[in-house]
Write a structure and sequence with these properties.
This is O-methyltransferase domain-containing protein. GO terms for molecular function: O-methyltransferase activity; protein dimerization activity. It comes from marine sediment metagenome. Pfam families: Dimerisation (PF08100), Methyltransf_2 (PF00891). Keywords: Methyltransferase, S-adenosyl-L-methionine, Transferase. By secondary structure, the protein is α/β, with parallel strands linked by helices. The chain has two domains: about 80 residues, Winged helix-like DNA-binding domain superfamily/Winged helix DNA-binding domain (Arc Repressor Mutant, subunit A), CATH 1.10.10.10; about 120 residues, Vaccinia Virus protein VP39 (Rossmann fold), CATH 3.40.50.150. The protein has twelve helices and eight strands. The strands form two sheets. A five-stranded parallel sheet has the order 6-5-4-7-8, covered by helices on one side. Helix 11 links the parallel strand 5 and strand 6. The longest helix is centred in the middle third of the chain and has 26 residues.
């Protein structure tokens, strides 16, 4: 029974991931809805959405009364798009991860990364979910991590693979007089600019497009931050990347890995 329970563990996860991908929680935030109304709103099959909604009720993520479904304020804060505490990007990113995890036998046999499989979202939306997930994961930890680094004294930060700028923002708040360069792929930079602008730090940040595997890195930094990258690389890839980082780091500067 324990083994079967492990194997069936994907089922509740898939229910939650489907609801997140379909944006079920966001449409129910404003008012309770019947299954038919939700299906019409989501352009979904009524019978199928009824089964999904009832499963969410069983998981205590929704409530059902008089054939209408609603969600609590606590769930709304975590799983709706316009909430400042939303972890919806992280949930949607896990849905993308799941589509790759199911390919594990092929990955092990071939020794190659899993094929990217789109679900109901575009590749751009999947990328946005990934970048948003990195912010979801990093924001709660950033202040404490930076505090544990001790007294920081740098003039120019280089945030390699800086994503939406979560760490750039926190480092600049810790060292208000510093400047920063955020380096990431061209399709990521617009998301970073938006996030940095909301933090009011645009004047302190230069945005540079590029791929740290193939492109030269920006120069002039005396503090380089490399977060959530080294773990995905082979030993050879990391050796090559660290050499590139060392080459552009100012004399006496520091490279910090997370």
């Amino acid at each position: 029974e324990e083994v079967i329970a492990v194997v069936r563990g994907f089922q509740p996860a898939c229910v939650l991931l489907a609801a997140a991908d379909l944006n079920v929680f966001t449409i129910l935030k404003t008012k309770p809805m019947s299954a038919k109304a939700a299906a019409d709103k989501l352009k979904a099959d009524t019978r199928a959405i009824t089964i999904l909604l009832d499963a969410l009720v069983a998981m205590a993520l929704l409530t059902k009364q008089n054939k209408e479904y609603s969600l609590s304020s606590e769930v709304a804060q975590l799983l709706t798009e316009d909430s400042s505490r939303s972890i919806l990007p992280a949930i949607r990113h896990q849905a993308n991860c799941l589509r790759r995890w199911v390919q594990l036998p092929q990955v092990i046999r071939k020794g190659q990364p899993a094929e990217r499989i789109l679900n109901i979202h575009s590749e751009t939306e999947d990328l946005a979910a990934f970048i948003g997930a990195m912010d979801n994961f990093s924001t709660p930890a950033a202040t404490d991590v930076i505090r544990k680094l001790g007294t920081l004294n740098f003039c120019h930060l280089l945030d390699v693979g800086g994503a939406s700028g979560t760490w750039t923002i926190e480092f600049l708040r810790a060292v208000p007089g510093a400047k920063a360069t955020l380096f990431d792929l061209p399709e990521v930079i617009p998301m970073a600019k938006e996030h940095i602008a909301k933090a009011g730090l645009t004047d302190q940040v230069e945005f540079v497009e590029g791929d740290f595997y193939t492109d030269d890195l920006p120069t002039g930094a005396d503090f380089i931050w490399l977060s959530a990258i080294a773990h995905q690389n082979s030993r050879q890839q990391n050796q090559q990347l660290f050499l590139k980082l060392y080459t552009v780091l100012e004399n006496g500067g520091k490279l910090v890995l997370r």
